[in-house]
Write a structure and sequence with these properties.
The complex is a heterotetramer, with two copies of chain A (416 residues) and two copies of chain B (148 residues). Chain A has helices at residues 13-17, 46-59, 69-88, 103-113, 131-143, 163-166, 189-199, 218-221, 246-251, 286-302, 304-322, 352-361, 374-379, 396-412; strands at 34-35, 97-100, 121-125, 146-150, 171-177, 202-206, 225-229, 240-244, 262-265, 270-272, 328-331, 342-347, 364-365, 367-369, 385-389. Chain A is an alpha/beta fold and 416 residues long. In chain A, β6, α8 (218-221) and β7 form a beta-alpha-beta unit. Chain A is globular. In chain A, 64% of the residues are buried. In chain B, α3 runs parallel beside α6. The chains are: A alpha/beta (416), B alpha+beta (148). The interface between A and C is large, with 96 and 96 residues. Bound molecules: pyridoxal-5'-phosphate (2 copies). One pyridoxal-5'-phosphate (PLP) sits between chains C (102-104, 129, 131-132, 177, 181, 206, 208-209, 229, 231, 240, 372) and A (259, 282-283). One pyridoxal-5'-phosphate (PLP) sits between chains A (102-104, 129, 131-132, 177, 181, 206, 208-209, 229, 231, 240, 372) and C (259, 282-283).
Chain lengths: 416, 148, 416, 148
């Protein structure tokens, strides 16, 4: 495929693509892979895989507790990953970085440990991923606190018109996504954090879709907590990150009980370590941290600003291309500069499953369904949608392939 | 790859999808269930009306893809008018077909139009679509006391 | 090293060792690695590493939610791992296998979801790993239930003399380890489960140290719940297993809220999937499950009975060798047939840290400290100990190297 | 590898380990703390006695390895009799040495016997052992109001 000269594309895109072994895959019938499901999970560059293999083949040992050379090497590799993530987020201190299983666990950790009671309220939004909805629903059920949410405008933005009423003096938590995984909307993070702060509430930012494609600077946006997930930033599954202001983390009670999170244990009672160890009970995802460290370093070398520019260029190109398909409606903002790289759409007369199926027969991998955002779909009166999501390795040619495959879908289902 | 696609989207399936049989919720029923496919959000509300051990009616309202819609339509054709035992046997046979990963040879005698779903069994992600209304029907029939 | 002919050793031990790339490592000064810290974490055979690499390089995609070919491949690989684990445990149904982050999370999941209240009690033992102590301490603090425990006899067995008083009609949970990670003791699992059942309580078996080296058959021991951790059975970090009887699992309330564990979600309320998905919120450890599946398959090919015989042969040889070292006292049972492969000991006049350090300078990797079992150490009046732990790849020559290194430690610290 | 071992276990360290200075808990004190190394369980109970801005006594009871025991003994030698500011400066210097991964050249003038710990800095797992009593001392001194 020849790459049209699109301003903003990653320099040396074809070289960068070579970093990702899976992009060479062919699918059934010898069709090349066109992977447009990166908001679901990103592909992994060779450096990440190699870092994990090297760890498993040469340095594997349990951490902290092991005093021998392998133990020291493994511990150093794990803790270096923490440093890399701290740098990635511009955290004040490495102690602010807690490794979790995924973003979902990080959100549930907060929903389980932030104290709530009757009379308190938690404010979320209608565009959240289920992880940032159900975790707080359960917390409110347990505690008797009230769950509130920002609605959405017709063009897929947060409706802030009643913000002063929603976030009030009884608000304890304002939890919201930085970038919507369904609508692509980029929310005004710093403003929302300031609003939470003014009300005396803590802000919880779900950066699962932001971390892959934007510069995430926790000091610049002045949030209290922020989470993201490893597998969407070129890292492996099995690891996520909870970042929190050190003084806040140290005030939270423990989450899980077990090894590494303790100070001392007797049968009758125990005392607990400080953050981050307080929240890392048991053997942590060691090789996964090594992989994640390599991943954020890889993104750092490319430059998150460059990755972001690429995403914007591809997104603009995709929005343009999609709108040439008859009967296709994009959900969410239509201006590429205001959104992330996930684009959900409807195609009149064909169900998303069927679209995804036909696309798949041409090698084009997209997601169909509710993308773990049922309420946002309900808001727009749809039950499911088709979503394409690009990433740093996506070429304009792949967008062309998507558009062609959508045309083919229309003809396959005999739509005028 | 459109051979494979054609194996999935047999004409019969597309016909049922475009013109579903028995669609709509009707008033006479002993049990109503609501099933969802949690993965994709496809939904079906389904009612069964039994009398004297016979499936008198299956009425439904379904939101979903061609496969899930067509399979509800085929279900309607296959079970309405049969006695419950027979209908359960057809259910069992359809289940076996769908879970066979493409290795089960369907019997046109019993399964009629449902044999068109043989191709679906090769697409693991779509098996759930095909089974949505069938699972709902079994659930509703049991609730209506039809399994005794 | 020439291998003495020891009855029970794994056939083709030298060939099996070649499966583990790290065993070729040399350490500082060119010293070969003698890895005797497998109870802390096991080493990984090449098949496990290769399975993970193949998944990352060729099949990586998110599961369940993805409808495309890569998604189908990834989902199949993940769910096949569940089948392999179900077979490994002889589970009645694959739905009984829940993937968690590690054993610690599995225990905490139970401690968070099993309903407890004032008047209820939970019975544990004094030889538990911190994960099986602190999790229940926290559960009892939250609920007002009482925490009780079996004490230990001087030879490191459970003291069952007051069992009838401890486990009573108010007991809701009896949680205990199958094999102690400090003392090596193998507990009478089936008896303890029967005792729990008779009292109307559920049994929770911590098989973290059993699964690597014994045949674990959940139907044979008739337990209600059982947990183990991936990284000790030749699998990767970042994955553990909660097994539970299907009907019990389906009665538990959800643990974490998020993607995949739901049936439907609205802003106001949600309904939940059945087990195992109910307990697998968020993107699960996919590549880790693939690795774990390969690991239990590898163990299955060797044969757990053969692995167990090897462990017993090595343990007997080690107990014999250790007792030739002047001033050395083994903690726990002295009969190899009654214990697992972790052997903790004291050496008069040298602190465990210092022992481990000197051993490490000779390439011998052991653990020093409390091994996350402070109460068991306190019971024997010691603050810490040194622990050697063998595994299927351990040779008698490595035990000789340990014994020599201990002799050297004594001379280094100028002990008569 | 016994060169490396000898770098860690300097004679001075082993001497302090075998004959610790100032060990034992004494009655006069303004603050007592208990610190543990959660990894290995090493523990120290430590008391400080200050008067007129001078460290009059540091008394302690410690359970632990040769490195942690010897470092408590060296701490005693270095801070008792100094005024708090000076002692804090020594603390700072010892901390820098231990966290320097072996790259910091210790100043014998101020650190005296503590220079023997330079080798410990190369063993990351042992740095915590060496710092246990020093961290406890700082904590106790702050609690005793010695930081004003
Ligand atoms: C008996 C026992 N239980 C639980 C655990 C905890 O395992 P993990 O740290 O992988 O959660 C361990 C190992 O550390 C163990 O030996
Ligand atoms: C916005 C958002 N939040 C949270 C998540 C949950 O991430 P994970 O499944 O890795 O926990 C996702 C992705 O699935 C997401 O897109």
């Amino acid at each position: 495929m020849s790459v049209p000269a699109l301003p903003g594309l990653l320099p040396e895109l074809e070289v960068v693509r070579k970093d990702f072994p899976i992009l060479e895959r062919t699918l059934a019938g010898g069709v090349p892979l066109v992977y447009l499901d990166s908001a679901n999970t990103s592909q992994k560059p060779q450096v990440v895989i190699d870092a994990m293999v090297d760890h498993l083949e040469r340095h594997n040992a349990n951490i902290a507790r092991a005093m021998h050379q392998l133990g020291a090497e493994s511990t150093a590799a794990f803790e270096e990953a923490r440093d890399k993530v701290a740098a990635f987020l511009n955290a004040r201190s490495r102690n602010e970085v807690v490794f979790t299983k995924n973003a979902t666990e990080a959100l549930n950790l907060l929903a389980r440990t932030i104290e709530l009671g009757p009379g308190d309220n938690v404010v979320i939004t209608e565009m959240e991923h289920h992880s940032n909805i159900v975790s707080w629903q359960l917390a409110c059920e347990r505690s008797g606190a009230e769950l509130r949410w920002f609605g959405l405008t017709d063009d897929g933005q947060l409706d802030l018109s009643n913000a002063d009423r929603l976030v009030d003096e009884n608000t304890k938590v304002v939890a919201f996504t930085w970038v919507s995984n369904m609508l692509g909307t980029i929310n005004p993070v710093a403003d929302l954090c300031a609003r939470a702060r003014a009300a005396g509430a803590v802000s919880v930012v779900d950066a699962s879709q932001a971390a892959p494609q934007l510069v995430v600077d926790v000091q610049a946006v002045e949030c209290d907590y922020l989470v993201f997930t490893g597998h969407k930033v070129c890292g492996p599954t099995g690891i996520g990150v909870l970042w929190g202001r050190e003084e806040l983390l140290n005030e939270l009670p423990p989450f899980h009980g077990g090894g590494e999170m303790i100070e001392t244990v007797t049968m009758a009672r125990s005392t607990y370590a400080k953050a981050p160890h307080r929240f890392e009970a048991g053997t942590p995802p060691i090789v996964e941290a090594v992989g994640l460290g390599a991943a954020v370093e890889y993104l750092g070398h490319l430059g998150l600003d460059v990755v972001h520019a690429h995403e914007q260029a591809i997104t603009a190109y995709a929005l343009e291309g999609l709108q040439t398909v008859p009967g296709l409606t994009v959900l969410g903002p239509l201006d590429a500069t205001e959104r992330g790289g996930a684009i959900s759409f409807e195609l009149d007369g064909v169900h998303p499953h069927d679209i995804a199926q036909v696309l798949d027969s041409r090698g084009v991998a997209v997601r169909a369904g509710h993308h773990c955002a049922k309420p946002a779909h309900a808001r727009f009166g749809v039950q499911s949608s088709t979503r394409m999501s690009s990433y740093l390795y996506t070429t304009p040619g792949e967008i062309d392939a998507l558009v062609e495959a959508l045309e083919y879908t229309r003809s396959y289902f005999k739509l005028g | 790859m459109s051979q494979d696609l054609d194996a999935l989207y047999q004409e019969i399936i597309l016909d049922h999808y475009k013109n579903p049989h028995g669609k709509g919720l009707r008033e006479e029923f002993e049990a109503e269930v609501h099933h969802v496919n949690p993965t994709c959000g496809d939904e079906v509300t389904l009612r069964v009306h039994l009398s004297d051990g016979v499936v008198d009616d299956v009425s439904y309202d379904a939101l979903g893809c061609s496969i899930s819609q067509a399979s509800a339509s085929v279900l309607y054709d296959l079970v309405v008018g049969k006695n419950v035992d027979e209908a359960m046997a057809i259910h069992e046979e359809f289940l076996t077909l769908m879970q066979g990963k493409g290795s089960v040879e369907p019997d046109e005698e019993t399964l009629e139009d449902a044999i068109a779903f043989a191709g679906v069994a090769k697409f693991p992600a779509r098996v759930k679509c095909a089974l949505l209304s069938w699972m709902a029907w079994k659930d509703a029939t049991v609730q209506a006391g039809g399994d005794r």
